[in-house]
Amino acid sequence: MKNLTPEDKNRIDELKNHLQERKNHLLGYPVTLNFDYSLLYKFLQYPVNNAGDPFYMDGSHHMNTHSIEREVIHFFANLLKAPENNYWGYVTNGSSEGNLYALYLAKRLYPGGVVYFSEESHYSIEKNIDILGLNYQKVKSQPHGEIDYKDFEEKILLHQDQPAIIIANIGTTFKEAKDDIKPIQDILGKCKVKKYYIHCDAAFCGSYAQFLTPKPHFDFSEGADSIIVSGHKFLGSPIPCGIIIVLKHNKERISNYVDVLDSLDDTITGSRNAITPLIIWYMIRTVGTEGIHHQLNECLNLAAYTRIKINHLGIKAWRNPNALTIIFPRVSKALQYKWQLAAHGAFSHLIIRPGITKDMIDSFITDLKNDVNYRK
């Protein structure tokens, strides 16, 4: 086997140094920065693959982490108040795949259904709708990002004789607004829509939303049919991943047996990452619900501090209640790129997550104060 040249080794070192520097200036995108999974490096020597249903015990392919994946699903099903003995799920390649799976499941349950989602929904929703060839209605949003319930009702009335497939945002992409599935269900009842499916896209907030006061209405006990939570956003993973939880009795209506695997084909992809379930399992075992709650409180305090510091510069910054996202007028390209800030229209935002420190915020505030283009 050919050895790496000195140039190859230098390139690896340069990439590591680049990523380390950029990690210290990553404020605008929802990924956690402080984690250590070095104990799991030993598993990179095995060709593991989680193909098939993690709950199907008799498959012929054994180089997997299905037993670990099941524990991850049990943890999140309990966190999200899924009904005992009536839930199923798997670890996805990200929340976009989880949204695709939920829409696929809803389509199979309700052919001819109409998808309703707000204009603040993640871009994966519209893309997945296109992939699946679904009919849809895009609903207006309120100024703070939550779905406009009046417009939702008007859109429902246009198709009240068809099944409704609703995407509820539990933390919108840019403003971290949270839709409330209680008034959504009230509207469905008022419009006499009997067949409906509610999917909650809780990619960023789903892992901690149960600890907020007041708690958002989005879990299974409150009427959700499926929920997606990201693994790499608030929880922390070096590899993108997500956790999709659905009602088992719905999933069983679309399951197919695959002879070559001697397993059920219940997931979007065939081959699946077997390392990410191990990473999330490790996080659960080492951090747990108490640790997640503690990290949330630290982030909420830092988010409040950040908004105040920006406001003290005479710049109007705001955040939704209990949100970790701070929104302010759009900054210059130079500042946007230095701190990797997300921007949309006339606004920029930054997001507080585990690993963001007060020193990082103070350094950003200094740059913001000196941002000449921002003042123009």
TrEMBL record:
The keyword Lyase applies. NCBIfam families: PRK02769.1. Keywords: Decarboxylase, Lyase, Pyridoxal phosphate. GO terms for molecular function: histidine decarboxylase activity. Gene3D superfamilies: Aspartate Aminotransferase, domain 1, Type I PLP-dependent aspartate aminotransferase-like (Major domain). It is an enzyme of class 4 (lyase). Pfam families: Pyridoxal_deC. This is Histidine decarboxylase. Coiled coil: none annotated. PANTHER family: PTHR46101, SERINE DECARBOXYLASE. Its EC number is 4.1.1.22. Its cofactor is pyridoxal 5'-phosphate. Belongs to the group II decarboxylase family.
